[in-house]
Amino acid sequence: MDSNSGVVQTTCPYCGVGCGVLAETAPDGTLALRGDPDHPANHGKLCSKGSALGETLGLHHRLLEPMIGGRPARWDAALDRVASEFSSVIARHGPDAVGFYVSGQLLTEDYYVANKLMKGFIGSANIDTNSRLCMASSVAGHKRAFGEDVVPGLYEDFELADLVVLVGSNTAWCHPVLYQRLMSARRERGTRVVVIDPRTTATAAECDLHLPIRPGADVLLFNGLLAHLAASGSLDRDYIARHTEGFEEAIALAAADAGSLVHLAAGCDLDPAALRLFFELFAANARTVTVYSQGVNQSAHGTDKVNAILNCHLATGRIGKPGAGPFSVTGQPNAMGGREVGGLANQLAAHIGFEHPAGIDSVSRFWNAPNIARQPGLKAVELFEAVGAGRIKALWIMGTNPAVSMPDAGKVRAALRSCDFVVVSDVVATDTTRFADVLLPAAAWGEKDGTVTNSERRISRQRRFLPPPGAARPDWAIICDVACRMGFGDAFAFRSPAEIFREHAALSAFENEGRRRFDLGGLAGLTEDAYDALAPRSWPIHHADGAGAGRLFGDGGFPTPDGRARFIPVRHEGPALHVDDSYPIALNTGRMRDQWHTMTRTGHVPRLAAHAPEPVVDLHPADAARLDLAEGDLARLSSRYGFTRARVRITGDQRLGDAFLPMHWSGHFAASAAAGTLSAPITDPLSGQPELKHVPVRITREALGWIGVLITRRDLRPTGFVYWSRAATAGGWIYELGGTEPSDQGTLLARKLLDPFPRARLLEYTDRRGPSFRAAVIDDEGAMEEALLVAAPGRLPGRDWLVALLASRAPLSPTDRRALLSGLAPVAVPSTGRIVCACFHIGQHQIAAAAAAGCNSVEAIGAALRAGTNCGSCRSEIRAIIATNRVEAAE
Ligand SMILES: Nc1nc2c(c(=O)[nH]1)N[C@H]1C(S)=C(S)[C@@H](COP(=O)(O)OP(=O)(O)OC[C@H]3O[C@@H](n4cnc5c(=O)[nH]c(N)nc54)[C@H](O)[C@@H]3O)O[C@H]1N2
Ligand SMILES: Nc1nc2c(c(=O)[nH]1)N[C@H]1C(S)=C(S)[C@@H](COP(=O)(O)OP(=O)(O)OC[C@H]3O[C@@H](n4cnc5c(=O)[nH]c(N)nc54)[C@H](O)[C@@H]3O)O[C@H]1N2
Ligand code: SF4
Ligand SMILES: [Mo]
């Protein structure tokens, strides 16, 4: 940190790319954030979410003081209460009657003390993390093949590869800066890119070959690839012989499973010629990187999917070499750090598991913790089942929103409601904080110090550049205070995150002797100053100085007893649940470009909301026709577990029979749109990761009698509506409303939203012929404070000008007032359409107009409108709009 100039180097709190961010405070106190040109992950670039970080620092919904039973309390009282309830449950029912559910949003230091408290001192391993929903299959796959959870490669490999295969990864939206690094390399050196995803994603829109695979068929595909590599003489026999075990069994099963190309293509529902092309590309390119994420992990057979991919890399010796390797990209900012400390219930600490008593004894001695847990604990889905069944009586949730993000989320909410004692540490109010008996306000990004580890094992500092608001405190300090009150003061007397980090580093090296690659021994003696100045470095780190490690396993040396990697024979199984007459559509869930998870932070930023303002379910045209659904209809989706509602979008990007729903909308942003409510709590038997990418659903049309829009400064959670969803806009919110009542009843219902305002401030107009209703609320300065429009479906007037009036806060002219009542804009406001470029706020219609006027490349659009010239996250969408324009022009 350069304290003189007021520039603080920190790390983005969103995805696992782990981009460096500079936070600069000007002399007048204003804060500016930008990409850190010196950070090796991003070299100064940020994506749309990273670029908007400055807009998330407001105090919207921030928790500012502890609460007990919904009432403000002092820290002392709250901490005493947590410690005494946990201690008393443990005394009465034993340590396994309590649980922690933590998160990859936590910093390594927070994570370390939470894990140490539960496993070392409470003596139970019932601490699990949202990484169970995210990375568990990759962890299990790495451990089976390599003996340890290690990602062998570096980001540079994306740039050095000749072929990059993206499997179940919408990299363009979910790891955008890394994706842009790949795209620059592709422009410079012609890297071939293959995308394996059932959907035509933004990532698939820009590749050499897209394989729209049948959901869940990845094991079959990679078994087919392994068989092809063997049959075509593309194996690295030397690497196999010197560094691996089990090849013969794996190839035998793969060949039998895959069968002929025609059989294989039918199983994967792919064109045999495209499949062959992929196999040939893979066979021909020694420099191949295979990137994978949730399309692989979030599956009932996710671990097998991971190993099917690893088998192909081991068989070709393409591992840990420049431009070659399997690459599991991590989701959350500190998914990797959580794995390092042992945050998963089936790991103990520092990459030591529960398999060997010697390892457990070693940690027990290091921590001086005779009461250490000796068995794995409950994994997330089991943990919440135990809460629901009353076996877990006290639960502490930190930095995650399981009421929305867990599968079968309705049941999770019921479990939380029934639990005797629930503690939640969060930075804002969420759907989960509603269930808290004790609510603890945590310091947020920018307000706390610590470290995170990104997908390439690189540890970076998050540094504080703001004071925590109100009484908010960093998680590590909260956890240590509770531990002290439970009588474990000696082991939790940490005064700083640096002190915790030193202990974490020392544990990683303790009695290690080269057995575990995760080793931060070189950092165990870091001074406070050196910790403050710590530059981003990849582990293993054996020396205090130096650049950190490079690639691993290029010349074998796997952390298994014999130093060899394991081939794992795997057989195709497919998804756990099948579609049938009652639930005929396979629902896939995942991410949108500009929202982060349950929208607790990104949902409040207008320019991030504009890209996807409503919960939308994507359907293939033929499915929509079969289900009698039209574009923009409100759909009801139901699975065996629950139901949600979302708008219909009809798109050829979906496979026939599949639908896609984003995972982001919670009860804070829509009436009932949480994807987790539909998802099945069915898990991979090895990793415990739930199958979030596949659940059979039924989709029907809600016969809406009316629709409405409320444009307002108020932050509301409306009740009594069949449908509402909201999106942040400049100066307030836009609420979409709808109901199945006849439209006059709908008007009455919607009109109630205006009850808080005195009649004198209302302008109202009911059009009996329509019938439609329009109203506006005028503030003391004569500006529009709120506007409500209600009409029959398809009859709502345009609202762009009302949104502009809300933002302007200017007093209304007489013309504006007349226009408010007539429902017609006083002057024609050109509609920008859905926002595509979040950085410069450029909409679909503007890009289409520029394309029609002759801008026929992404570069030309950039020159004309600036769209796509900053973070680049929208470049593939711009390309798609240009292509559509070309088709339309040709017709
Ligand atoms: N914008 C944004 N970025 C994020 C996040 C966010 O919330 N928003 N979250 C971060 C986190 S925590 C994570 S874990 C990552 C996730 O990053 P990704 O894994 O890239 O994201 P998802 O959209 O969950 O899923 C990826 C793709 O898997 C595909 N898929 C579904 N089923 C299958 C299948 O059977 N086989 C194959 N091959 N593909 C399939 C889906 O169609 C989807 O396009 O993103 C991180 N980055
Ligand atoms: N259907 C479906 N469900 C999914 C997925 C899917 O693809 N489909 N993906 C899964 C995956 S991969 C993931 S990672 C999860 C994510 O799911 P969640 O973990 O539930 O998502 P977030 O919204 O990131 O929740 C993080 C919470 O931590 C809070 N927070 C942020 N910083 C801090 C901090 O420093 N301290 C504390 N105490 N709190 C903090 C935020 O305000 C927020 O409420 O969702 C999973 N659920
Ligand atoms: S790619 Fe975007 S979200 Fe991910 S770390 Fe970088 S700036 Fe943050
Ligand atoms: Mo994740």
Largest beta sheet, briefly?
Answer: 7 strands, mixed
CATH class of the largest domain: Alpha Beta
Number of helices: 30
Shape: globular
Strand order of the largest sheet: 5-4-18-17-16-6-7
Uncertain parts: none
Q: How large, in whole angstroms, is the Cα Rg?
A: 27 Å
- CATH architectural name of the largest domain: 3-Layer(aba) Sandwich
Question: Which small molecules are bound?
Answer: ligand MGD, iron/sulfur cluster, molybdenum atom
Number of strands: 36
The proportion of residues in beta strands is 15-25%
User: How far from one another are the termini?
Assistant: 58 Å
Mean pLDDT: 95
Q: What is the count of structural domains?
A: 6
Protein name: Assimilatory nitrate reductase catalytic subunit
Cofactor: Mo-bis(molybdopterin guanine dinucleotide); [4Fe-4S] cluster
Pfam family, one: Molybdop_Fe4S4
Organism: Kaistia dalseonensis
Please provide a written account of the structure.
The protein has 6 domains: about 5-55, 2-Layer Sandwich (Phosphorylase Kinase, domain 1), CATH 3.30.200; about 65-135 and about 335-540, Rossmann fold, CATH 3.40.50.740; about 135-330, Dimethylsulfoxide Reductase, domain 2; about 585-700, Barwin-like endoglucanases (Beta Barrel); about 705-820, no CATH class; about 835-890, BFD-like [2Fe-2S]-binding domain (Arc Repressor Mutant, subunit A), CATH 1.10.10.1100. Helix content is about 30%, strand content about 20%. The mean pLDDT is about 95. With about 900 residues, it is α/β, with parallel strands linked by helices. Strand 4 (about 65-70) and strand 5 (about 70) form a beta hairpin. The chain has a 7-stranded mixed sheet with strand order 5-4-18-17-16-6-7, with helices on both faces. Helix 3 (about 110-120) packs parallel to helix 20 (about 475-490). It contains 30 helices and 36 strands. The relative contact order is 0.12. The protein binds ligand MGD (2 copies), iron/sulfur cluster and molybdenum atom. One ligand MGD binds near residues 134, 475, 663 and 679.
